[in-house]
Amino acid sequence: MRPYLLLTPGPLTTTETVKEAMLSDWCTWDEDYNVGIVEKIREALVRLATARPEDYTAVLLQGSGTYCVEATLGATVRPDDVLLVAANGAYGRRMGEIARYYGMHHAVLDFGETEPVSAERVGQYLETHPEVTHVSVVHCETTTGVLNPLADIARTVKAHGKTLVVDAMSSFGGVPLDVAELGIDFLVSSANKCIQGVPGFGFVIARRSALEACRGVARSLSLDLYAQWETMETHHGKWRFTSPTHVVRAFKQALDELEAEGGVVARHVRYVKNHDTLVAGMRGLGFRTLLADAVQSPVITSFLYPSADFDFRRFYEALKQRAFVIYPGKISKADTFRIGNIGDVHPADFERLVATIASL
Ligand SMILES: *Cc1c(COP(=O)(O)O)cnc(C)c1O
Question: Which residues constitute the domain of residue 193?
Answer without folding.
Answer: 16-259
